[in-house]
Amino acid sequence: MTEKKHGLVLEGGAMRGLYTVGVIDVLMKYGITFPAAVGVSAGVAFGCNYKSLQPGRALRYNLRYGANPHFKGWRSWLKTGDLYGADFCYKQIPEVYDPFDTAAFARNPMDFWCVATDVETAQPVYHKLKDGKRLDARWIRASSSIPVFARPVQIGSHRYWDGGVSDSIPFRFMERIGYRQNVVILTQPRGYHKEPSRVQPVVDRLLKQYPAVVDRLHRRSFEYNEALAQIAAEEARGEAFVFRPSQDISVSALEHDRETLLGVYQVGVKDAEARIADLKDFLKK
Known about the structure:
Structural class: alpha/beta
Oligomer: single chain
Shape: globular
Distance between the termini: 17 Å
Order of helices and strands: EHEHHHHHEEHEEHEHHEH
CATH superfamily: Cytosolic phospholipase A2 catalytic domain
Radius of gyration: 18 Å
Largest sheet: 8 strands, mixed
């Protein structure tokens, strides 16, 4: 592949992902496209609407169904093992309540990859989505399934969990496949530093049958902070263009207050609108 092609990298972050939605909705407004993108967890669950050219959709269904116990909540977790209801999120919403445009997704020539973590090896698996239909939805669900708060997702002979366990910000993956100057949408503000989880001893006990995943979770804060440092260095050299929340968007993964969720989205819109001219200049390189 030729070098210096532009790719798009979408971090996860549960409901902080509505910041990403705000940014990509602005990208669609200005007709900004990429030959390839990669998303993790909420980054792919919400970001897939960028490939299907459906601005507003991710915000709409989160506002409409955010308080629905079938969508997310402890009741869903206790009943099914999934904090985010698998059937409601990955079947009922995209097929019935707020249809996902699989035809537009398939027509769009942009390659869109998602990242999941193999349960047995704790290694990242990068899967290129194809048509936005049920198998793709299963990969998106796998990428978004947080250990302890979701069941592993079986695809073929393997089981998968959240891609954030093994590659929270997969910008190096984009470089490996030939995209040397990338736009990265983060969901934490500048200066953020991930600390080791205070509940890790509890997680260790709950996941003792998955030793590779436990080991990876112990390393996650270090790997995440290392990725942030590498991205900042590339940004300083002009090799990356990075969107970060310009103000606090702390929000619970189970947040259902419409105004709070809308506020996260609006920060993304504001940040993208403020920097759209700079982004266009970057993409000319």
